[in-house]
Design goal:
Chain lengths: ~400, ~220
């Protein structure tokens, strides 16, 4: 075994240029596989981190039916108080309005909610404060702007204390939210938050039913468990529509994470598959050269047989040579992949992306190369092993 | 130990059949020194290759050490070539990219001899042919006579009972030939069976027994 390994190294070393050219197919295949999969993994990691930064422990529930027997915020809060699997809820009603500040006029989205919204969504303030329970109790005419609304409506962020009007009703700005990635991700609409009670007063035509709410489970309870209790409650609370579908939808962030990771794993498998094809092409190159090698070394095979080499020892010699060629190509390919990923890292520096050599894909590449060496080495090696000693000795005169 | 009965080897060249060996009967006892002489193309090498298990006859029975060789498995044949037979060829047949000592070591590797024992045996074999000083040399760095001595060292390193030499002096000058013959005679004196093929009568005469081959037919020669 170690002997045929030494012989293989020697034979590979005796024709370096050819060996390197032979390995090239494998090297390129390994680079394609390792680099592509590592890039996808790096991108996946960064997407997942961004999703995680959204706060994945809350769920948003959409209620389609807000007209017959609407769900009120009081009913929601009463239920949440009695439900162990749900810690806090924040009802919301969303509508649009024309916001005016001085001579400026902009279309904005208005969300009526409660103070709980802030914690559930993990928001941050840039200026001032968020809605307080007293604001909701008193139907206060105060509002909180997100950073986009501050930019668009007022024109600057340091605007606490200014007055804006929403559809003609005046609101004092109590706070401005900090900019956050998720806002950018979800479209960047100007949003103005006002107390839930003020919302109902502002839009008298509303039934008083909430159209959506946020909920978080207490510590130690998973979002999906909490989601089950919400679903159970709501499916009792609301009748199904005429097509037999639920009149509500529970959306959890881990669903987003799941769909993101299923997209990236499909991408990774797809690219990995394409790269594997190039590895197989590399394997065919190895087979080709091994066949040439066997032909060139027919006399040597004859000599070895004449002095007592068995079929097995000839087979293992050439098989070993093919496998060693492949594995050397693999090592070179992994090394070059590492260089390329380092280069990629220095290019994307500061974009919150890092590409690491993925140990899993390196192992996969190594296993793949080993298999390719065995599979594509077997035919030439077997051809060598099966030669009759006398024919091999007399080959080419 | 070597017993050939009605051994026949036929080559079909187009329509024509060439009898390289035509019902050959030959018995070689242990420790004999036999010369096979005959002109070029008479079938000498064919005979040698069959005796050395590199080739198989088309008809007849070859019994080696009491066992017909068609009863040997492929693996067993490799083992016999490895341990019972040492081959010396006219064109040396050394492996060019291995040094002298590595060439000599090769049969021991196939025999599964442990490394330490191998290097000892290689040293002894090279000593026996007087080439200790050239152990590290590559075949291309050696003269014809030296290469043939390496080949002899390789043939005897596994201590086989039979040495088969197919025109070992064919490519060598008369002085070097004499040296090679001396080594072969010495090996025979030490108890090895030697079968020597030649077309040189003077060289053949150094053997204790001579057989003559012509057009694939064998006959004993009494001197
Ligand atoms: N592989 C072969 N194919 C066809 N004819 C062959 C082959 N090997 C040997 N012969 C023929 O068999 C005869 C004996 O050859 P060989 O044993 O090599 O003779 P020698 O060694 O006495 O010169 C010759 O006529 C040769 O042409
Ligand atoms: Mg001949």
């Amino acid at each position: 075994m170690s002997m045929s390994f030494k012989m293989a190294l020697r034979s590979i070393g005796s024709n370096k240029l050819r060996s390197v050219l032979t390995m090239l197919g494998i090297i390129i295949g390994v680079i394609a596989l390792v680099v592509l999969v590592s890039l996808v993994n790096g991108a996946t990691k960064s997407v997942n981190e961004q999703i995680a930064s959204l706060g994945t422990n809350y769920m948003q529930i959409y209620i389609w039916n807000t007209w017959d027997d609407p769900l009120t915020s009081r009913e929601l809060e009463t239920w949440a108080d009695g439900e162990e699997l749900v810690e806090t809820v924040a009802p919301t009603i969303q509508n649009s309005a024309t916001a005016k500040f001085g001579a400026r006029s902009k279309q904005v989205s208005v969300v009526g909610t409660t103070s709980a919204f802030y914690d559930i969504r993990g928001l941050k303030l840039e200026k001032g404060r968020f809605l307080k329970p007293v604001d909701v109790q008193n139907n206060s005419c105060i509002c909180v702007l997100d950073s986009i609304a501050a930019d668009n409506v007022v024109g600057y962020r340091d605007c606490v204390g200014q007055e804006i009007s929403l559809n003609g009703i005046r609101y004092t700005v109590a706070g401005v939210l900090a900019e956050n990635d998720s806002m950018m991700m979800f479209g960047g609409e100007s949003t103005v938050y006002i107390p839930f009670s003020s919302m109902l007063r502002q839009y008298a035509e509303l039934s008083g039913g909430i159209d959506s709410f946020y909920a978080i489970p207490p510590k130690g309870v998973s979002v999906s468990d909490a989601a089950v209790s919400v679903r159970n409650w709501l499916s009792g609370r609301f009748e199904k529509d005429e097509w037999g579908n639920d009149n509500f939808y529970v959306s959890t962030m881990d669903a987003l994470e799941d769909s993101a990771s299923s997209v990236t794993s499909v991408l990774s498998a797809l690219l990995g598959g394409i790269a594997s094809i190039s590895l197989i092409v590399g394997g065919i190159g190895i087979m080709n050269i091994m066949l040439v090698t066997v032909t060139e070394r027919t006399r040597e095979i004859g000599i070895r047989k004449a002095i007592g080499a068995t079929r097995r020892s000839i087979l293992s010699q050439f098989l070993m040579e093919a496998v060693v060629l492949c594995m050397m190509g693999c090592i070179i390919g992994v090394f070059l992949s590492w260089c390329i990923l380092n280069l990629a890292n220095s290019v994307v520096q500061g974009l919150g992306l890092t590409f690491d050599l993925d140990a899993g894909v390196v192992l996969l590449a190594a296993a793949f190369c080993f298999a390719i060496g065995l599979i594509f080495g077997l035919y030439p090696a077997n051809k060598a092993a099966k030669m009759k000693p006398i024919d091999a000795l007399h080959y080419g005169g | 130990m070597i017993d050939l009965k009605d051994i026949t080897k036929v080559y079909q060249i187009g329509e024509e059949k060439i009898y390289a060996l035509n019902h050959v009967n030959l018995h070689i006892a242990p420790q004999e020194f036999v010369s096979v002489i005959g002109p070029s193309g008479s079938g000498k090498s064919t005979l040698m290759n069959i005796i050395g298990l590199l080739d198989t006859a088309d008809a007849g029975v070859y019994t080696l050490d009491g066992i017909p060789i068609n009863e040997y498995s492929e693996n067993a044949l490799a083992g016999v070539r490895n341990r019972k037979i040492g081959f010396v060829f006219q064109n040396f047949n050394l492996i060019a990219k291995l040094s002298a000592e590595e060439n000599v070591e090769l049969p021991l590797i196939y025999a599964g001899t442990p490394a330490r024992e191998r290097s000892e045996k290689v040293k002894k074999a090279l000593e026996k042919v007087g080439l200790s000083s050239r152990a590290k040399h590559m075949p291309t760095e050696l003269s014809g006579g030296q290469q043939q001595r390496v080949a002899i060292a390789r043939a005897l390193v596994t201590d086989p009972s039979v040495i088969l030499a197919d025109e070992p002096t064919g490519n060598l000058d008369s002085h070097t030939s004499a040296e090679i013959m001396e080594i072969l005679e010495e090996l025979n004196d030490q108890g090895k069976t030697v079968v020597l093929i030649t077309h040189d009568n003077d060289i053949a005469k150094r053997a204790k027994r001579i057989v003559h081959i012509l057009d694939g037919k064998l006959s004993e020669v009494r001197l």
